[in-house]
Amino acid sequence: MDKMPAWADAVLVPLISILLAAILSALVILAIGESPTEALWLMIDGALMRSSGWGYTLYYATNFIFTGLAVSVAFHARMFNIGGEGQAMIGGLGVALACLYIPWPHWSIALVGATTAAALFGAAWAWLPAYLQAKRGSHIVITTIMFNFIAAAVLNYVLVNVLRPKGAMDPATAKFPEATHLPTFQDMFATADNVIFRGSPANVSFFIALFACLAVWVLIWRTRLGYEIRAFGHSETGALYAGISPVKITVVAMLISGGLAGMMALNTTMGEAERLVLNATEGAGFIGIAVALMGRSHPVGVLLAALLFGFLYQGGAELALWTNIPRELITVIQALVILFTGALDNMVRKPLESIFLSLRSKGA
Amino acid sequence: MTDTPAIELKGISKAFGPVQANKDISIRVMPGTIHGIIGENGAGKSTLMSILYGFYKADDGEIWIHGRKTEIPDSQAAISAGIGMVFQHFKLVQNFSVLENVILGAEDGGLLQPSLSKARGVLKHLAEEYELQVDPEALIEDLSVGRQQRVEILKALYREADILILDEPTGVLTPAEADHLFRILEGLREQGKTIILITHKLREIMEITDTVSVMRRGEMTATVKTAETNPEQLAELMVGRKVLLQVDKVPATPGKPILEIENLRHVDEQGVERLKGISLDIRAGEIVGIAGVSGNGQTELLQVLGGYCHATGDIRVNGTPIDLTGKESDGRSRRARGIAHVPEDRHHEGLILPYTAWENTVFGYHRDAQSGSGFLMDNAAIKAEAAAKMERFDVRPPNPNLAAKNFSGGNQQKIVLAREIEQNPDVLLIGQPTRGVDIGAIEFIHQQIVALRDAGKAILLVSVELDEIFSLSDRIAVMFDGQIMGERLPSETDQTELGLLMAGMTNGQEKAHG
Prior knowledge:
The structure holds two protein chains of two kinds. By secondary structure, chain A is mainly alpha-helical. Chain A is built from 15 helices and no strands. Chain B is 32% helix and 26% strand.
């Protein structure tokens, strides 16, 4: 007998966590002398009430879907991939190389090529930590964190010394050719008399992210490989008994995870900046951890959590623009959400479980 | 003897959510007696003792110790009330000496030396009085399991316990060690100590207790004088219906050898040689039982045969050798060669506990054609087949969507058995088939194993329960220290001879490794 109905576990727990985070954030905003209701309204207005706001929200959400899925797949194999940030950076390098050095005839073919490059580069960056974990027992948390720093340094070197166009001042590649520019939501959905998503960066890679959600769901719950990944995640000794190779599952799960993280670069590098810049990932690799925790490693949960964090990012930017609430406080609010939905999950879950238990024993 | 009970529990109830673990339990344990508490797994024995030892708080009811109503909110209170507990899994610090373990938590002051000297004296005295000889300076990790258990008893006596609770104390002991333990308990009883013995072994109850209480589904169904009852009656009280204690089987008619093992050696990751040249044949239509105290290589033997780890030597199935070191030495390849395996540890190996029952019914066979095509698994077909298997093996509740962790031990084991037996293997490896399984399910599981034998399969049975080895096996091999000490026919040997072999003694000579 499970302790709570599934809906309570999937919906009620995160909802209450968000509510608690919101209450605490409101108190913080009150403390610095601003109005929490006004702040909330500004966030909603800026992120959700206009199509351009949605354009930003969905743009951020796209990043978080990819990195959230990346962390989720690794979670299913009971591995903590903290290296999404680095894998996304190197994925960006793959995108840049594919876009700059292959003459693509059309954006759609370029997108396929760049997606492959992003996934391959991201996966390659996850391979060594995975191999070290599987063969040498080096802890994946430590190695992936270190690989984030190495990735940043590699990117720095490549951008400054190799890919920077002659005479350019900033460490970035040249602008990608016209044929690789992805259609934005404005290009896709705006008509002459109704210009929606004006100027916002959301682009076609959002649909790739949605497709990735579906693909991950099929992988985890419908394929033999997913069955093995989950079995290994639940019990390594069980996997051994069943003839599932721990080395193979560790490496394969991390390759998929790294590939997904790398694909985030499609959105930022190919879809938005249209060139590779330093720090294109902006911490999305780490947000992916919170997204995966909150989404309980399920693609639907990840999608919803990514939308929430997209809203927080875009709404936060609006707050900084229109109020005296400093930019840093936005980070505090986001951190509170992460804290409540991720780290303090049990604080909400345990009391809820006992409430449901007592309800049930009374009903019985 | 007085009429005041050493322990009296009045109307103890305890619920964990919707599960009523103890229901209105009343019991009187007279001083200077050995009182047995017997019941199936999940009957509530451990919960009751945990309440008595202060780990849980009862929802209802009273505890009276020596005629005084006593509150036991934690184990400190239990100790000061004179209650000592010997757990099934010892709570000893492995790299401490016996003496240090005994005083741990009962030090007299900031400095250790006075406590250690005092304990040394007390231990010497206790050793003489109760046959509890242990070298006080020895490190725990160097002691045999039987001696470690004595340290646990000494710990309780050092804290001046006069009521001793032992939870399944013989599970890890050789028959000789168990006999020694019983002598110690008898000595303690003579000195007026009160002992509560929790067990599921009817034989022990009959052998040593004065009074026995039977628990079933959280309730105390009966308390009887041991002298006035018999095993059949107790089994019936435990299960709630008549139980066949003997396995019903016709003599085996073994055919040609199916599984041939020759000079099998295995060195574990720590570099310790766990299997030291095992040779054994198992023929078609035969159950070979491996007897032995756990930790003498039986687990490793099953693991090598099941493909978990590498080994040297030869294993042939139906005359063709199997790969022991290369690519083909994993669980999947073994299954492909017709070796099915019901592992010793169903929680960590045989089942993925959070997986549903239907997911577990293809565990290990999930790459086979029966489970799907291409990359995908055919979940609907697996589920339908799982429902049918659960019906045939009487798994209760027969709900394939329930997670494996939500089934009782016996039903979990039936899920594993259903999976392995229905693959129609040539060889079945089966480890501890009835560990943590209730008596009712034991009967069913034994019948299935015998039915598979009668279908002409070769079966290797590993069990630490000698009774089980005796009643199921057509041939018994005894393992000690990674070797086979001898093979016997069940009809031509007895517990005493096997016990000696299990302790590494052949012809009255102790092995050098002992």
